[in-house]
C-alpha cells in the first residue's frame, strides 16, 4: 500500500474577470480567464485512523481544520463516490495567501482530490475528478488543470488557452482577507439598476496570452470585481499606485482580492517592484512568481 502521496498545486490570478448579472441561483455567469501562477501549496495524504487535517505555514492559523476545509470536503466527496472509508491524514503546507483571491482553498481541494485518488487507487477518470471539483467550488476545476483556461458558467466550465511565453508577476498580500460572496454582493450593489452586459472573453487578451507579449497583456488585463473590492477596501488603491509607480506594466486586484497583482517585464523588475511595495507600507508582504504553472500534480 502507498505510504504517502504529496501533490503540489498552484495559485491563480484572473487576467480577465468579466462578470454578468446575478443568476437566480445567486451565482454570476463569468468569462473568467484563469492563469496559474507559481506560488504553491502542497497537500500530503497519509493513511490514518480517521479523517484529520493539519496545516503549516505562516498563514496556517487562518485555515479551518474541520470538515469545512476544502481538502476535507474533497476527500469526503471522493470517498463517498467510491464507497471508501475516508480515513486519511491530509497535511497542507500552505504558501498561497489565505482568503486573498488566489484560490488557495480551491487549490487544496483539487490537491487533496488528486492525492486521495492516488493513495486509494480509485482510478477516477479526469472527467470524474473535474465533476467533483466543480461540486466543491467554482475555482476548483482550474486548480486541477492549471496552465491557462477560460472559465464560463460560474467559472467551472473550462476551455484550455494557449500561452506563448513566461509572464512575471509580483503579488502584494494585504492584511486580512476579503469574503468572496461579500465582493460579489458589492458588485451587485454597485451595478444595481444598470444593464450588465453578457460576459465575453477579450480577443485582445487571448491574443496577448498566445503571443507571450507582456506589454500586450498589460493593456488587456481587466477585473469587473475590482471596483467592488476597492469599495470594500479603499486602501487597496494605494497598493495599486505604489506598484505602478515602482515600474509595473499594469496592476489589478486578483480575483475577489484583497491580493493585488502586478505584471512586470522581467525578473529584475519583479524584485524591484516587490521591494518598493514592501517599503511603501501598503501591504503585508510581496511575492514574486511566474506564470503559467502546472495544475495539481503528484510530486
Ligand atoms: C472570484 C473568483 O475567485 C474568480 O476566479 C471566483 O469567481 C470565486 O470562486 P470560488 O471561491 O470557488 O467561489 P464558490 O465557492 O463557487 O462560491 C462562493 C460564493 O461566491 C459567489 N460567486 C462565486 C462564483 C460565481 N461565478 N458567482 C458568484 O456569485 C457566490 O456568492 C457564491 O456563494
Ligand atoms: N484549505 C483551505 N485553505 C484556505 N482556506 C480555506 C481552506 N478550506 C476552506 N477555507 C476557507 O475558505 C476561505 C477562503 O479562503 P481562500 O484562501 O480559498 O480564499 P480565496 O483565495 O479568496 O478564494 P477564491 O480566490 O477562490 O475566491 C477562508 O477564509 C477559509 O475559511
Automatic annotation (TrEMBL):
The keyword Nucleotide-binding applies. The active site is at residues 12, 139. GO terms for biological process: isopentenyl diphosphate biosynthetic process, methylerythritol 4-phosphate pathway; terpenoid biosynthetic process. It catalyses: 4-CDP-2-C-methyl-D-erythritol + ATP = 4-CDP-2-C-methyl-D-erythritol 2-phosphate + ADP + H(+). It comes from the Bacteria. One of its GO terms (molecular function) is 4-(cytidine 5'-diphospho)-2-C-methyl-D-erythritol kinase activity. It is an enzyme of class 2 (transferase). Its EC number is 2.7.1.148. ATP binds at residues 97-107. InterPro entries: GHMP_kinase_C_dom, GHMP_kinase_C_sf, GHMP_kinase_N_dom, IspE, Ribosomal_Su5_D2-typ_SF, Ribsml_uS5_D2-typ_fold_subgr. Residues 206-277 form the GHMP kinase C-terminal domain. Residues 69-147 form the GHMP kinase N-terminal domain. Pathway: Isoprenoid biosynthesis; isopentenyl diphosphate biosynthesis via DXP pathway; isopentenyl diphosphate from 1-deoxy-D-xylulose 5-phosphate: step 3/6. Keywords: ATP-binding, Isoprene biosynthesis, Kinase, Nucleotide-binding, Transferase. PANTHER family: 4-DIPHOSPHOCYTIDYL-2-C-METHYL-D-ERYTHRITOL KINASE, CHLOROPLASTIC (PTHR43527:SF2). Belongs to the GHMP kinase family. IspE subfamily. Catalyzes the phosphorylation of the position 2 hydroxy group of 4-diphosphocytidyl-2C-methyl-D-erythritol. This is 4-diphosphocytidyl-2-C-methyl-D-erythritol kinase. The lineage of its organism: Bacteria, Bacillati, Actinomycetota, Actinomycetes, Kitasatosporales.
